[in-house]
């Protein structure tokens, strides 16, 4: 692990060796004052990160879930102990060796509902929310032939609401893999914003559903009076955008309806609390300031 870290250009770091082909953790960084290690074990590295761009400190935990289902509760107990400290923004990333719902697995035997339920429960207990991703839906793959191919989303990032509020523009990408059967995760706290954000102002948010309000056009006119009077041409362009945004909103609504329906058929109301919390996190991340 140390050789890989040094080849990546990180002079400072901590390395936890693998046992055979299982496990192995490494955290690397440059600069002596940016990272301070809180604790570590075969299954985790817990550290405080100082962001030099905003002067804020947040908590990063690299996590490895036990691949043996017989000892999976040991991993969940560890995460719960780490979750007792919620004083700062907290993000956990790694290979959990478990999925949240059946749609995160393709091929092979069906995952036990009890196993997935225990994973959802530990995230709820720790107030951690799955943050989503860009790219392919799976992070682990085995089997080259269609009949034996297995794909699952074992690797993910989860975070508390304080971390999501600290980095509202973040992005998480599933990259292509080559030697490993896991794909790398690339986290960018600045997301796809290519310009420097003025920290004294809140990011711009817009809800497509506003177009459905009859008073929308009048509100826009009043808002622009202090700057310039919108022309008929500008208002016409706004109405054209309205059609496109409503179409995209409808597509997203269908997506979430299908996704919720799939899990409702599988789990009934056992996951209603989980989906409610995820939607709260999603709403808070996209709320208008």
TrEMBL record:
Record-linked InterPro entries: Endo/exonu/phosph_ase_sf
SUPFAM superfamilies reported in the protein's UniProt record: DNase I-like
Protein name (database record): Endonuclease/exonuclease/phosphatase domain-containing protein
């Amino acid at each position: 692990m140390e050789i890989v870290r040094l080849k990546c250009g990180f002079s400072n770091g901590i390395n936890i060796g693998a046992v055979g082909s299982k496990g192995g953790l490494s955290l690397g960084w440059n600069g002596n004052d940016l990272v301070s290690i809180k604790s570590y074990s075969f299954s985790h590295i817990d550290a405080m990160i100082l962001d030099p761009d905003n002067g804020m400190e947040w908590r990063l935990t690299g996590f490895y879930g036990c691949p043996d289902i017989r000892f999976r509760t040991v991993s969940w107990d560890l995460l719960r102990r780490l979750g007792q400290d919620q004083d700062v923004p907290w993000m956990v990333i790694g290979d959990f060796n478990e999925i949240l719902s059946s749609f995160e697995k393709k091929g092979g035997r069906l995952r036990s509902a009890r196993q997935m339920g225990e994973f959802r429960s530990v995230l709820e207990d720790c107030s951690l929310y799955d943050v989503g991703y860009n790219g392919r839906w799976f992070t682990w793959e085995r089997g080259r032939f269609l009949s034996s191919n297995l794909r699952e989303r074992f690797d993910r990032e989860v975070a508390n609401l304080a971390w999501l509020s600290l980095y509202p523009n973040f992005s998480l990408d599933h990259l292509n893999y080559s030697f490993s059967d896991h794909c790398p995760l690339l986290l960018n706290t600045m997301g796809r914003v290519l310009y420097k954000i003025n920290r004294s102002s809140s990011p711009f948010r817009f809800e497509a559903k506003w177009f459905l309000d009859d008073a929308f056009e009048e509100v826009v006119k009043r808002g622009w009076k202090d700057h310039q009077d919108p022309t008929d041409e500008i208002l016409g362009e706004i109405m054209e955008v309205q059609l496109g945004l409503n179409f995209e909103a409808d597509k997203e609504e269908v997506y979430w309806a299908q996704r919720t329906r799939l899990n409702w058929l599988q789990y009934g109301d056992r996951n209603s609390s989980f989906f409610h919390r995820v939607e709260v996190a999603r709403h808070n991340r996209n709320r208008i300031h």
